[in-house]
Every structure is written in C-alpha cells, then in structure tokens.
Automatic annotation (TrEMBL):
It holds the Pfam family Jagunal. It is a multi-pass membrane protein. The chain crosses the membrane at residues 40-62, 99-118, 138-158. Its main location: endoplasmic reticulum. It comes from Ramphastos sulfuratus. It is found in: Endoplasmic reticulum membrane. This is Protein jagunal homolog 1. One of its GO terms (biological process) is endoplasmic reticulum organization. The gene is Jagn1.
Amino acid sequence: MASRGGPRATGTDGSDFQHRERVASHYQMSVTLKSEIKKLIYAHVFIWLLLLAQMCVGHLKLLPHDQVAMPYQWEYPYLLSILPSLLGLLSFPRNNISYLVLSMISTGLFSMAPLIYGAMEMFPMAQQLYRHGKAYRFIFGFSAVSVMYLVVVVAAQVHGWQLYYSKKLLDSWFTSTQEKKKK
C-alpha cells in the first residue's frame, strides 16, 4: 500500500483493503435485531398508553360508562409490562446480557401472563356475546370484550415477537463473546 497521495505498490489498484471493511455477521445481526426490538417496544408503548388512557377515563369518569367501560382485572397487572421494555432498551447501548435476560423473564411474567389471564377472564363474556348477542360493556359503541380481545391478540403477537428477537439477539451477543474469548 502507498501513503496518501504517494505512489501505489506495484500489482495493486488500491482496492485490496475492502475485504477488511466487512462487518462481522453477528454484529450486523445485533444491529438489525436491536432495531426490530425497538419497533416492537414502540408498538408495546402505544398499546400500553391506550390501556392506561382507558383506565384513566374509566376511573376518573371523564366519559359515561356506556362509552368507555371500566377496565377488566387483567389490565392492572399488565401496566407493569412497561418495565421489561425499559430493561430491554437499557440493555442495548453496552450489549448488557443480564438486562436482556431480565427483560425476557419479566416479559413472560408481566406481559404474557396478564394477557393469558385476560383471555380467560373475558372468555365467558365473549361466549355470551357470541351465543346470545348480548354485550353489557362498551367502548365507543363496540362491545368491550371484542375490543379487548383484539388488544390481547395484538399485544400477544408484539410480546411474542419481542421475545423471539430478544432470544436471537442474546444468541448473537453470546457468539461475539465466545469469539472474543478465543482470541
């Protein structure tokens, strides 16, 4: 190689350095997965804010109960689901494995468990709506059980994908850690 502006070494056109500029695949994967998880966290925060707004409106009686129903019991523990997302975001800057593991465990406890409980809690009301066409709780004219089942389905998918991508991210971080130990 030659110095800046000086003569080139014979037999080279100056492009033989490009193979050294490739980023290792596990680093590329880490960046991609962090981006996907951040998108899912933003979707989760949006769902969380909707549930928080419904709870505030229901408890503070800002709107009549025939427009916005009181929250179901599963919604209260689901409010804790913001903590795993914050732990996940805190794990990103320095690839902190322990924060990511805590985020994954607490996602199961504070996000997925309340959603499963919510699906079971609302099932009798959904059955009554399906069989008899009777709904007693409403959210802006729609049956509350239908709206909340939609929220449960979307939130379960968001958290499921978040766990999946977190596991893949954890694997890529372990790969880079193992390669550093080999050197």
